[in-house]
Structure formats: C-alpha cells, structure tokens
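Section 3.1: Structural characterization of target chains.
Under the original work plan, the team committed to producing a structural model for every single-chain target entering the pipeline before any wet-lab resources were allocated. The record below documents one such target. The sequence was received from the expression subgroup and is listed exactly as submitted; it comprises 190 residues.
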Amino acid sequence: MTRSRRFFRMLRKTFRVKPAKRRKENEVAPVRGCVLRCDLGLLLDHTGVYIGRGRIVSLNRHGQVRIETPVSFFPPGTNPEKSKIYTACLKGTDVVLASSVVAGRAKKKNNARTEYNVLFNNCHRFTCGCLTGDFENDVVSFAMLEEVLTRNIRSLIPKKAWWQRLWDFILRRKRPEPVLKYEWRPVKFG
C-alpha cells in the first residue's frame, strides 16, 4: 500500500461522518434558538423561544415579552413539577430544530409591550414572529404555529461543519436528504 493510500485511509477513519444520534433516552437538551412549548391542559399550549443558559423568552398574559426560567415559563395555575416542556426535533433523532437568528429576534423583543389578546395576539403569534421575522403575522393558534414550523424546517436544521462539507466534496459524496418531519420531545434543562 502506498503512502498516499495509507494517508487517505487514515483520513477517512478519522473524519468518518457519523449518522445523527438515534433516540437512546426520551429527553433532549435545549439548543439556543429552539421553540419550546408546554401543555396547559384542555387543548391549550404556551410557547416561547430558548435563548440559552436556562432562559426562555415568551409573551405573557399581561402583554409583556419577558425572559423566564423553566419554572416561571409555566403560567399561573399550572404545576411545573407535573408538566413538561417540549421542543421540536427531527423525527426519529435527537437533532433539535434551532437557529441563532430566532434567538436573536426573541432577545431583541425583550421587555417589549403589546396589547395581549388570548385569541388574536398571543404567545404563538410572538413565537411565529421570532421564527419568520414578521411579528405582524396571522398566527393565532398552536396548530398554525406548527404549520409555520413545518414551512421553515429547512432553516432550522443544523448545518454540517465546514470541514465535513469539504470532505464530502472531495469524496464526491451526495448529502442524504434529511427527513423533513419533526416531533415534540421532552426537554431536560441543566
């Protein structure tokens, strides 16, 4: 075996592309810029954006955009010990759908005030605004927010590192098309 073949063989072993992690445990760690939701019971949900270090930005019932902890993210009347917070992940993997652009938009809106209306100007509309950049959108329900999340799923899938893309280019590998479906998975903070 020639030196160049040994060298390329060593490179292939060292920089082998590993498939996305399959589910080993039920809970995932949140990533900066991911959409979080919690169940309020009776078909109601509360949503917000994770900005890192255990902080969540959401629109509360007083019309104020606030940075909250995982415990204060639950509105009054709900039990944080019995309820869970969920995030969107690629279906069948531990890959959390997130973008630093989404986190930046949420952070810029901190301490902003708006006229809150549970039907027409709620936390889902704020979260959709963080996803799309359009805070004057028509989203009023969690189902509509999920549609927006589905439409913007490509921008939320994490990109490969530059050296992995270069290696794929050198070896002329086709990048497999990711599954463009997501599921809500429980979040474990800390």
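The first helix runs from residue 3 to 14.
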